[in-house]
Write a structure and sequence with these properties.
alpha+beta; D-amino Acid Aminotransferase, Chain A, domain 1; D-amino Acid Aminotransferase, Chain A, domain 2; 2 domains; seven-stranded antiparallel β-sheet; globular; Aminodeoxychorismate_lyase_IV; folate biosynthesis
Length: about 350
């Protein structure tokens, strides 16, 4: 699971396709210690370790050595996409919204017909202990349930035991205060059965993101076959109408975002203070969405990102809206000082 680059050495040139085919020589590692030595050498060139800790039910414990943070190639999640995942934020030494993410994770696993090698309480304990072992105070913890390793067949019948993996990702994220540009995606969105389940089949999401980047935009917006706004490639989307109502698309055909749900719980405070007229979920047409006063992405790692332009059309006056930032402040305050039901203190050694 290493995600880093380095210059190609002379011993690696054959693997990079440099030279004639007749010169192509594949090295055969004589021992696991030789391979491990090479992996350690590669990781030693990385300025900062981005993955301070990983858990694997295959290993049966927590791994601190990045060279050993691997999963079996015959895992059904790897070669058949039979797996689910979720992500929680680590902020200021607390795990934010872990329980709601874990509930969605297990619901996704049930829909994907994947059992867990551990109980819910054990999974929760593992994630807290993993975060503590990582010593990471700010970042994310991402975790997967898979049908497990066993063979390369289509059916998971040959995979005797499901697998649970988790990794802590050290990441210094900040509150998003600048607006971004979006486009309408031409990549077909997933059907509701798969869109409402947080599974590892993310090729449509990847292509939608790449499509946007190729056109100079941050991300794209999916529109369903009925012409209603759906979601972004890995985030929900929300709008402030000209009447100052916070509106999100219904969750019947898209992923029910944990941060989006929390925002819907927090936003009525702005209604009480007179900033918003109301908070609701309903279908929105593209025309309605583009005519909104403000627009934003909502997702765990943002948690809120202002959108100021759709294609070449400004949203509202084309600037980051006041209400957008008030909603952003609500989420950041909740991350920093919210109730114990939202924040779990990590017992670092």
């Amino acid at each position: 699971m290493a995600n880093h680059t380095e210059s190609i050495t002379s011993s690696d040139k054959s693997l990079a396709g440099v030279g004639n085919e007749s010169d192509f020589k594949v090295h055969v590692f004589s021992s696991s210690s030789e391979l491990l030595e090479k992996l350690h050498k590669k990781w030693s060139l990385v300025e900062k370790q981005p993955y301070p800790a990983m858990y694997s039910s295959i290993y049966g414990g927590i791994i601190l050595d990045p060279a050993m943070m691997v999963i079996p190639i015959d895992d059904h999640m790897v070669h058949r996409g039979h797996g689910v995942f979720d992500t929680a934020i680590i902020y200021d030494g607390y795990l934010y919204e872990l329980d709601v993410h874990l509930d969605r994770f297990l619901n996704s696993a049930s829909k994907a017909k994947i059992s867990s090698p551990h109980s819910r309480s054990a999974l929760r304990s593992i994630l807290i202990q993993l975060t503590a072992a990582s010593k990471c105070k700010k970042g994310t913890i991402r975790y997967w349930l898979s049908a497990g390793p066993g063979d390369f067949l289509l059916s998971p019948a040959g995979c005797p035991t499901p697998a649970f993996y988790a990794v802590v990702i050290d990441d210094d994220f900040l509150q998003c205060k600048d607006g971004v540009r979006v486009i309408t995606s031409n990549v077909p969105m997933k059907p509701p059965q798969f869109a409402t389940m947080k599974n590892v089949n993310y090729l449509p999401n990847v292509l939608a993101k790449m499509e946007a980047e190729e056109k100079g935009a941050f991300a794209s917006i999916w529109v369903d076959e009925e012409g209603y706004i759906a979601e972004g490639p890995n985030v929900n989307v929300a709008f402030i109408t000209q009447e100052k109502e916070l509106v999100m698309p219904l969750f019947d055909k898209i992923l029910r975002g944990c941060t989006a749900r929390r925002l819907l719980e927090l936003a009525p405070k702005l209604v009480e203070e007179g900033h918003l007229k109301g908070v609701t979920t309903r279908n929105l047409t593209v025309e309605e969405a583009k005519g909104s006063a403000e627009m934003m992405f909502v997702g765990s790692t943002l948690p809120l990102l202002p959108i100021t332009t759709w294609h070449d059309q400004p949203i509202g006056d084309g600037n980051v809206g006041k209400l957008t930032m008030l909603l952003s402040d609500l989420l950041w305050d909740d991350m920093l000082a919210g109730p114990h039901t939202q924040r779990i203190a990590v017992p670092y050694a």
